[in-house]
Design brief:
Elements (H helix, E strand, L loop, with lengths): L13 H6 L8 E5 L2 E5 L4 H21 L4 E4 L18 E4 L13 E8 L4 H11 L7 E6 L4 E6 L11 E4 L3 E4 L4 E4 L8 H4 L3
Parallel strand pairs: 5-6
Antiparallel strand pairs: 1-2, 3-4, 4-5, 6-7, 7-8, 9-10
Pfam families: Uma2
Organism: Azospirillum lipoferum (strain 4B)
Protein name: Putative restriction endonuclease domain-containing protein
Length: 198
């Protein structure tokens, strides 16, 4: 007999999720279609990459666009089914002012995910939800299996490309949304990947 799963959209709302105290452990969650989804602890490579990218982009913004900020693991509400979805990218950039009581990232222009082999499906599911946000102009997905990245950039007509731009090794990363340009390898300093030949 096949079990029929009830619609997940009758589950938890974003407001309920933000007030939820979790399951009593240190497990982090995001809200997917009304259901809390556990997020596995990041690998050390993932953590180094996340902190390095946050520092590089943060320094760049402080110098070139001080009204913009990089935020670690922000809550992002997709435009579609927003009342039952709160996704957590690794990093987000917004140029909206910080206000007391903000619990989700307002008007992100750039969202960054770090792709681990164990979370590939969930990461790409999140990426496609980010494309529903009208303020987002770029989505960067960084690899942890090697020095590489995939970049989705909103086109002039507002649409998204069918496939991301793939960069590897010595390629230069250009993030037009924040005017950032640097060798892709620079993001991987401190990781074992930086020390390995491409």
């Amino acid at each position: 007999m096949v079990a029929v799963r009830k619609s997940t959209f009758s589950g938890m709302t974003v407001a309920q999720f933000l007030d939820w105290n979790g399951d009593g452990t240190d497990t982090r969650y995001e809200l997917v279609n009304g259901e809390p989804r556990a997020m596995a602890p990041a690998s050390i490579t993932h953590g180094i990459l996340q902190s390095t990218v946050a520092r590089l982009i943060g320094n760049h913004l402080a110098e070139r666009a001080p009204s913009c900020h990089v935020v670690t693991a922000p809550g992002v509400q997709p435009r579609v089914r927003s009342s039952h979805n709160l996704r957590i990218p690794d990093l987000g950039v917004t140029c909206a002012a910080d206000e007391r009581g903000l619990r989700t990232l307002p008007d992100p222009v750039l969202l960054i995910e770090i792709l681990s082999p164990s979370n590939e499906a969930e990461t790409w599911e999140n990426v496609w939800t980010y494309t529903t946000l009208p303020s987002v102009s770029e989505i960067l997905v960084l690899w942890t299996a090697g020095i590489g990245a995939e970049l989705l950039r909103r086109q002039a007509d507002g649409s998204w490309p069918e496939s991301p731009l793939v960069m590897v090794g010595e390629d230069v990363l250009s993030l037009d949304s924040i005017g950032y340009r640097a060798p892709l390898r620079a993001l991987y300093v401190g990781t074992h990947l930086f020390r390995q030949p491409d």
